[in-house]
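[Primary structure, fold]
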Amino acid sequence: MNEPNKAKRGIPQKSEFNKWYPTIVEIADLVDKRYPIKGMDVWKPYGLSAMSNIDSIARSEMSRTGHSEYRFPLLVPEDLLEKENRLVTRLKAAREAGVDPSELRIEEEDSGFKKEVYWVKHGGENKLEIPMFLRPTSETPMYTMFSLWVRSHADLPLKTFQIVNTFRYETKQTRSFIRVREIHFFEAHTAHADQEGADSQIEEDAEMVRRIMHELCLPSIVSKRPVWDTFPGAWYTKAADVVMPNGRTLQVATYHHYKDQWAEAFDLTYEDAQGETKFCHQTTFGMSERLLGAVVGMHGDDMGLIFPPSIAPIQVVLFPIAAHSNVEVTHEVTRLAEELSSSGLRVEIDDRDVRPGVKHYDWEIKGVPIRIELGPRDLKDKKFVASIRTGGKHNLAINEAISSVKDLLNSVSDELRSRSSSIESNLIKPFPLDSISNNISKIQLDEGHVYEIAFDGNDSDAEVLEKSTGLTLLGECDTPFDEDRECIVTGKLTTKRQHIARMY
């Protein structure tokens, strides 16, 4: 068997989240952080298995919605980045000036990812004529090829995705899964004949996010990001944020509507049914290993991880009890494990010669949803004992094992959804003031909370809000207020529900 690390005592309480989180990641054996490059962890089998299960959920959603999987090169030549930077710079300037991007000349200012990329400037001992960089995301290499593949309306929509590693020179404090320099990244990119097709894709992306978050038992706040926090080159950006137990928000998914802006930059055109050449409209949808970080942070407790059954590397672990006194115990545990495994469950047998309490403790840390004990007395009664990671024990009939265990796994998922929704609702509070003044001193707010506000101001109003509170505006929430409220800065009536928070 794949033996877990011996449980280590001294886990900080989860209330000390900043200490608890890295400790759990290490003790549960998800990654090894000792690699000599900051922000580049070594994925260990248990963590990689959990991430692979998340990837499988994403792949299932891609298959359901007609996306095809591709794999694009890691290296991108510098001249393609310059094309991206010119686009991003123009769009940024257009926003600041409040005009259409076509009315502006392209400036030389560097925007986009240029300051965040890792450069490759030599091949062996030879200096490269055109330097290359490791992809921070894949718009540039993908759209270079899209422009070669798309010729007519018959080629549309083009719906692609890939699951790869991306690289960004992150200068802030790194944290496993949450802020890293080598990112396990999912990205879907689409091209459509018109804005209506892209609009429909954004709605489909939103539904996929809801379905994925349901599988991970995670509630989220979905917001349209403010203009200044919109992905470079996007018409608009929507994001799903999980409220972590320390009150900080973690962005776990984004989807962007590009309109035809990237198509113009990369000459991505098609010929319509009337023979007219038009620019494509595009979208992207991205997620990363932050999803696993959100699962660890939200569902874990003082005793270790709690994995949602959908992504648990091991869903059921079986312990033979007093097998030395009755050889039939081992036979029955093996048979039961095979039966559960054949029904599609991920199963492990722990037959170590240690006390049952040690086994329970070890697998508790690793977050296995169900632990099964079976001994001589259980054989006689034709039953087994199932301990649930979310709490409780059940005596179950051996001849109903498959249905009983699957019912218990569903109950674990339901319990995690209930718990996480309760955590989120307790951490989101109404803002304590009805309005703020431009002259107000910095407002003292409770640590560890997200604040809900009515806000319908402009960029300068948002700046006043953020400077006054020390928090970041997430953007317009997908669920507005039921009736008009006064904007916290301008006082005008609005139904726009927004949130301010400390973000990772």
